[in-house]
Design brief:
CATH topology of the largest domain: Rossmann fold
Structural class: alpha/beta
Radius of gyration: 17 Å
CATH superfamily of the largest domain: Response regulator
Order of helices and strands: EHEHEHEHEHEHHHHH
CATH class of the largest domain: Alpha Beta
Helix content: 40-55%
Largest sheet: 6 strands, parallel
Shape: globular
Number of domains: 2
CATH architecture of the largest domain: 3-Layer(aba) Sandwich
Number of strands: 6
Number of helices: 10
Strand content: 5-15%
């Protein structure tokens, strides 16, 4: 599959340089133009405020605020921006969170290269794209409900940050919250997930495929 004749402009946001290079080579090979690259959520937000690409292709697991929070902040500033999430997470829980937050598409990184071109093409055209594997999981009526689905959006974002080993103070700084507020979120998260400590919290995220190990 190739992209439309008119060159598409993109920003790539991923903390792995080799992934960004692969995406760039693939997309520019069919005529797209990568305006800039970001290696964290904050940098993606900065570039989006300065540039106006047709599509932002962004990972979820990045340093700083991460992709989900960056997505929310970008769309709060530019509601019409087209964001395609390209993530290693193949779990329906996090894909559903991203789509509800306003992502125009969700692609699993393990998909074949042509699927990236298809996803970018559809999102640029104003259509929604959902990875076939994720779409099948979302349609399953018997999909087991994970306790994390009971978390609010803010709690879920805090949960992901803490599960990756960040301290309460670091999360507070990232989200511009007080440590007491993050502590309150942590209390509710533990109650809802049925975990006692940070190690169990991290293991709950790993077992669910919500963080990479």
């Amino acid at each position: 599959m190739t992209l439309p004749d008119a060159p598409l402009t993109l920003i790539l946001a991923d903390d792995h340089a080799i992934v960004r290079m692969g995406f760039r080579l693939l997309l520019e090979g069919v005529g797209a133009h990568v305006l800039a690259e970001a290696d964290c959520g904050e940098k993606a937000q900065q570039l989006m405020s300065e540039l106006n690409p047709d599509v932002l292709v962004m990972d979820l697991s990045m340093p700083g605020c991460g992709g989900l929070t960056a997505l929310e902040r970008i769309l709060a500033r530019k509601p019409g921006q087209k964001v395609l999430i390209a993530s290693a997470h193949a779990d329906a829980i996090i894909a559903e969170r991203a789509l509800k937050a306003g992502a125009a598409g969700y692609l699993c990184k393990r998909s074949p290269p042509d699927e990236l071109l298809k996803a970018v093409n559809q999102v640029a055209a104003g259509q929604r794209y959902i990875d076939p594997e994720i779409a099948a999981a979302l349609r399953r009526a018997d999909r087991p409900e994970h306790p994390a689905e009971a978390l609010t959006d803010k709690e879920f974002n805090v949960f992901l940050q803490l599960a990756q080993g960040r301290s309460v103070a670091e999360v507070a700084e990232t989200f511009h919250l007080s440590p007491n507020t993050v502590g309150t979120h942590l209390y509710h998260i533990k109650q809802k997930l049925g975990v006692q400590n940070m190690a169990e919290l991290a293991m709950a995220a790993v077992r669910s495929g919500l963080i990479e190990v």
